[in-house]
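Hi L.,

As promised, Response regulator transcription factor:
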Amino acid sequence: MTPPIRVVIADDHVLVRQGIRAFLDTCDDLSIVGEADSASSAAQLCEQLAPDVALVDLVMPGGGVEATRMIRAGSAGTQVLILTSYEDDSQIVQAVQAGALSYLLKDADADTLADAVRRTARGEAILHPRIATRLIQAVRTPAADATPTALDRLSQREREVLELMADGLSNQVIATRMGIGEKTVKTHVSNVLAKLELQDRTQAAVYAWRTGVKS
């Protein structure tokens, strides 16, 4: 039997935490292992418990961006799903740069949240449609440090994988599109992240948009 996905909720509003817990507790494959009300407490809790997913509010004491950065530093196996009502472009990009994998607004329904937790635990990037649009708009201008030499490290196959990653496609879908095995896709993804010195698929997608690989 597959063990449940272990989740930490980080939000400074008690009622919000209680609401999220009340729903996720009804899902047999999800288990709430802890709650935090600040960036520092979230990071400490994740370091102690090593949950699969941390649900992090963007606006709380210490900040969600800093919470994400500390969680990723102290518990590398924990994926961060930002859950907030905040839509500021700079905050979105900062959260992704800090290591957040997924980003949902609090107007998402309960089933969408549960599905996002499951997919985030599997390493899939989930973005609320409005957030995805804002993120793409925010990163369309090429970055000053996005030099061609970094992209030159990629093989043609790896560039193709990077383009499909930028579309938010899973390894399975990429494998089907390219006509190759899923294990081969995983190898290409690992190579892309290593060569571009990126942490995860979300950062790779942002990189693809910023450098013009994906337009």
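The chain has two domains: 5-138, 142-211.

Thanks again for sending the construct details.

K.
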